[in-house]
Amino acid sequence: MKLSTARNWIIATLLLAPSAFAAEPAVSKANVEEASRHFTRGVQLFKDGDARAALVEFERANSIAPNYRVLYNVGQADLEIQDYAGALKAFSRYLAEGGAEVPAARKKEVEQELTRLSERVAHVTIRVNKPGADISIDDVSVGTSPLSDAIVVSAGRRKVTASLPPLAPVTKTVDIAGKDTLDLELTIAEPTVVAPAPVAVAPPKAPPPAPPPPNRTPFWISLGVTGALGAAT
After folding, report:
1. CA-to-CA distance for 181 and 121, rounded, in angstroms?
2. What pLDDT is stored for residue 217 in this prediction?
3. How many Å separate Cα 90 from the centre of its chain?
4. How many CA atoms lie within 13 Å of 160's alpha carbon, on the beta-carbon side?
5. Cα(121)–Cα(154) distance, rounded to whole angstroms?
6. Contacts of 18 by beta carbon, 8 Å cutoff, 6+ apart
7. Contact 62, 80 (CB under 8 A)
8. What is the rounded end-to-end Cα distance, in angstroms, of the chain?
9. Residue 139 neighbours by CB under 8 Å, 6+ apart
10. Are 91 and 60 spatial neighbours (Cβ–Cβ below 8 Å)?
């Protein structure tokens, strides 16, 4: 899809934005007005070349007052930032939610875009060894383990992370080609318990040796000598 064509169609959509939002059921007037402001801001940002900021505004508008028409703008902004998986999702929803209201020419154009995008995405099945871990791709959360389905990701180098505080997160960086089907295992390790170093204990001091018994031999010798001398006298 040519960028100039996309820009012109987005600008044309802007002229119909308030009435388009208002046509949706169960949307308050305040929400319609707020969504229209975000949509208008998104169009201007897209015209200025800031597709990332435009994407935020379009998504915010659609969250406040859901309208399938805005999904086309979301898809175009995703294309600008080369988020092929995001564009595929947005354009698919645009056709599904718009149904018969989507003009035939627009439907054909979007279907051709979807065929092209299918060559630029891959399906990744992510398994984590612990339940309840937050799984993110390129720092964007995609769900909590265990995931029920494979994740559609854009071709390129992707960073996949599983986090489960207070355990340390685990990250893998993988190169993914279009139409790949990958199985990715992420193992969150338990904290390593370090045993405390043994404390050196000084051996008990040996008691001092007992003093030797007194030598009484000289005393008895002296008595014997004294007795002998007395007898001689």
Report:
1. 10
2. 57
3. 22
4. 28
5. 4
6. 32, 33, 36
7. no
8. 149
9. 159, 161
10. no
Residues 28, 31: Cα–Cα separation, whole Å? 5
In total, the chain counts a number of residues equal to 233
Rounded to two decimals, the pTM is 0.73
Q: CB-based burial of residue 218 (10 Å sphere; 0-12 exposed, 13-18 middle, 19+ buried)? A: exposed
Which tens digits make up the pLDDT trace of 5-33?
555 555 445 444 555 555 556 778 899 99
Are 162 and 170 in contact by the 8 Å Cβ rule? The answer is yes
Average pLDDT in the chain = 85
Q: Which letter does DSSP use for residue 94 in this model?
A: H
What's the pLDDT tens digit per position in 75-90? 999 999 999 999 999 9
Choose between 67 and 3: higher pLDDT. 67
How many Å apart are CA 225 and CA 173, to the nearest integer? 107
